[in-house]
Specification:
72% helix, 329 residues, Farnesyl Diphosphate Synthase, single chain, mainly alpha, globular, 1% strand
Amino acid sequence: MTIWDTGRGAAGETELLEVRRWIRRITASPLKGTETGEVLEYVLGSSGKMIRPRLLLLCSSFGPRRAERLDRLCMLSAMVELTHMASLIHDDIVDDAGFRRGKPSLQSRFGKDAAVYAGDFLIARVNYWEGKEQLGETAALLAETVERMCLGEIGQARCRYREDVTEESYFENIRGKTAALFRTACRLGASEAGCPEDQAERLGELGEKIGLMFQLRDDLLDFALTKKERGKETGKDFLDGIYTLPVILAARQEAAGEALRRLMRQNREGSLTEEGLRQVKELVLSHGAEPVRQRIHQYSGACLQLLDTLEEGPAGARIRELIGKLDAV
């Protein structure tokens, strides 16, 4: 289920090639031949769709100084992607995940120690290059973003196995753990390309809403797809006590609430069976999926309204394309 095709217009393959070159430059190290070096080669060689760098470069198209600052924008895109990569490595360790995108996770393939060192190394290299390039306010923004990501993950951990987890807590957590980096990517692209402050803020808000859509879609697909389609275990968040919006909204429904809360209690007690998990998925898809689709559609409308306030070209069309695909879940 491809979210974004490649190769057309701004943030196409030519620019992304430059981003990848910056990634290699930033992560250059003497670790070749070590387990940590193997982790780095593995993760750098299997990068995903690079949605956050794409958004940074696309949002930079709204600024008048994009062309003269393109190399710097590609460097910043690399830093954003490396921050994302480091967070995925650490997430796999915390989640004790066996697979990522259908392949063995780093910690299962190379061991937890090497994975931890690799994640820390990536963040350290980003910090080093921020100082080397004297990025100042940009470095502070990225650091604040990492803090918000951590707070979102911590907030999510505090809600584990809670049958009374609220919609408000859920959104507070995903604004940090997922949407914060989307927001920063879009805002950085705009501000570094010379957009006025109000325009950069609007594009940052756009990025946050896209990030929320992205997480809502991911949480819904965790119940709607098979393991083969998804490339990893389905329902794992539920088994780990992480009750996402589809679960929260389904549990509110009179027709599903009592049965779903009973299964949530079984999950907390460690007695949930495979049949019980099947029932969870059925209840969530029957009673929680459509309300989540409606939320995604609401965010889609808000994103399009923000784009309507901007003078658009090919970059705006590409962003609309992404929004449309996120809304088509």
